[in-house]
Amino acid sequence: MGLVTAALSVALGVLLIWRPVEGAASLTFLLTAFFFVEGVFQIATSLVYRELIPGTWGWMLASGLSDLVLVAAIVYGWPESAVWVLGLLVGFNLIISGWAIVMTSFAGREMAKPVMDSAVGRQH
Fold first, then answer.
1. CB 36 within 8 A of CB 69
2. Residue 92: which residues within 8 A CB-CB, separation 6 or more?
3. In the Cβ-directed half-sphere of 25, how many Cα atoms lie within 13 Å?
4. Which of 23, 24, 39, 40 allows an S-S link to 64, with CB 3.0 to 4.6 Å?
């Protein structure tokens, strides 16, 4: 399976380098379909399970709605939207990933604080 994945990755990478405009349009189309399906399922799930997850169902609903708004913006602006969608998504991904790393660092520091405090106390 690893060899198949590697060969597919190389082939797709070569195609994207060779035909970047068509590649951007294809990736945008696939991401649009993904966001549409994900948005519909998130909205349906949030409504079905709102009794079980009362504190978070609204976030899931908002996420699903935002997916559908993004789909509408992509479809409305097609084919020009293929140029900006990938940059927008990569930008959001980098922001969210960076924020997650920062928050994980803060949580790790808080978890390590009692251990560090006890180690400092033993040295005295």
1. no
2. none
3. 7
4. 39
124 has pLDDT over 60: no
Residues 6+ apart with CB under 8 A from 31: 85, 86, 89
55-106 pLDDT per residue, tens: 778 888 888 898 899 899 999 998 888 888 888 877 876 787 777 678 777 7
Is the whole model's pTM more than 0.70, yes or no?
no
Q: What does the alpha-carbon distance between residue 65 and residue 41 come to, in Å, rounded to a whole number?
A: 10
Return the structure tokens found at 77. Answer: 């602006």
Residues 78 and 100 sit within 8 Å (Cβ to Cβ): no
Q: What are the residues whose beta carbons fall under 8 Å from the beta carbon of 44, sequence distance 6 or more? A: 64
- Distance from CA of residue 10 to its chain's centroid? 23
Tokens of 30: 């696939």
Task: Determine the Cα–Cα distance for residues 92 and 67; give it in Å rounded to an integer.
Answer: 13
